[in-house]
Amino acid sequence: MPYENEHSCRLRDPDDFKEDSFRRTRRKHNGRPYSVIMGRLKGEETMTEQAYRYRKQDWSESEAKSHCEDHNGSFHPAAKDSEGRAVFGLPMVTNYITKADWAMELGALERLTDVVNNRLLGLQISAETIEQIRASKKRDSDRGYEVTGGGVAIIPVTGIIAKYSSMVNDISLPAGTSVEKIAGMLIDAQSDRGVHSIILRVESPGGVIDGVPDLADAIYEAGNYKPILGYADDLCGSAAYWLASQAQSLHASQGADIGGIGVYTVLVDSSKAAEREGLKFHIFRSGEHKGVGEVGIPITKANREAIQERIEQKFEMFLAGVIRGRLPAGMDEKGLRNLADGQIFVGRHAIGKRLIDGICTFEQMIGIAEHAEITERMTAAAVAGDFKEKEMAEEKEKLEQDAAKAAQQAATEERNRIGAITEALSAEEFKAVCEKAIVEGMNLAEAKAAAFDAATEVFGKRTEEMQGKLTEAEKKLAAITGGDSTLKAQTPEDIVDEPKKAGGKDDGKPETYTAAVADLRTKGETKGNAYTKAAKEYPESHKAWVNAKHQEV
Prior knowledge:
The chain has 553 residues and is α/β, with parallel strands linked by helices. It has helices spanning 19-29, 37-41, 47-57, 61-70, 94-99, 106-120, 127-137, 166-172, 179-191, 212-222, 239-244, 271-276, 301-326, 333-339, 348-352, 362-370, 373-385, 389-422, 427-439, 444-481, 510-522, 527-537, 539-552; strands at residues 8-9, 77-80, 86-89, 101-104, 146-147, 152-162, 177-178, 197-208, 228-237, 249-252, 257-259, 264-265, 344-346, 358-359. The chain folds into three domains: 8-120, no CATH class; 136-281 and 299-373, 2-enoyl-CoA Hydratase, Chain A, domain 1 (Alpha-Beta Complex); 496-552, no CATH class. The strands form two sheets. Strands 4, 5, 6, 7, 8, 9, 10, 11, 12, 13 and 14 form an eleven-stranded mixed sheet that branches.
């Protein structure tokens, strides 16, 4: 008897290679004609043809291997039959790979098919090797995620994503992961009282769509209880980006590949190949769309249209999920559709497309998550309330209101402070700072900081000069008045260009605003408060004053 097992099938001798024996053999394994998957998709010589020629011409294994390499194929003798001849492995997962709807980079799919062929076309892996692979994948924590000293859970999303990837993940792809596993880690981290925030660390080309929409919803909803941050570590493509986009913020490393938004599937019409081999398949089915893609079944125009419609439906689900997650970052449907053609963007270029929020190292990302004051307060509320939804929602709303008020107050104070300082910077000095920023390649934040530093330095120097002149004036005044203390010069803060008494009319003139500031200063208001109150009382005059300042620059 020839050798047969669950992963391989004896190839019949040329004399035996008839329709009935071929049909019985394939029916047993519920598989397709034996081939290298991607080689078949590219129209190259199939492994069935290679194997047939090998057996017919009685090649040696080395000759067959050389022939296959010449045709961009591969040769993996799985075992020997009773006569010492090589038999070939039957790929049991080809239906899954070539029929599934993928949201993944095509290059990653090609690598996956290489791995599958190496495993299922004959390469035997010992039990010891399998255990070593499994052991190498065990994490430090039995929970599957790590927790930093600051209470941040790090959930890995690595490798090809599948709904249930135990077969591929356990042996062929040590870096792969599954929707089921990610969801389990997310649930555990949510209920872990030692965790106050979560980082999804993503390094994945994407994968099969099955289960991804539900997991994306779970990630989005989980953000209502604990902050969830996303980090793209080198690669965040397609389905992986779908998941990462549901985080409350998404950062990436400088060289990370981001995007690849889109959906595709691959079906092989093998009916012509079957005809060339002299095979005729009789198909019994309940409808014209049943069994599309099975061996020997031609793919009609109606089939293609139905498949395309299904892909478009899943694509719309993909878009809706990303828009929901990235809406706070300014993403809109029109902008997303312009990007959703499979393009990949690198690092900073993805920021401008609203795909990510910023660039940082992973260590910096951990620091952001560990030291966020609001997340700590949310954690305390969560522990006290034991994750009661109503209390969490009320606490979250209160925190958001407090944060908004604090941010508004801080922004007002900072604007007043910066406005007072930058008044000291002349047009020439400001222009010099801008030119320096352009030459040195500063980003906007760095340029603003440089301008502020320069203005602060100039302001300090001019204040010292004015203080020196004031001291000198006081000495001269003392000499003239004989030390009469009732006569005293103004301080630098009291000096305002041509102070005028403010009137009651907001006439839209810069002088009116300046006079109002001077009037408030004489009444004991600080400079910052004087600017603020005058702006509220004379909004049109303040606007004219701001425009005049901009024209000076």
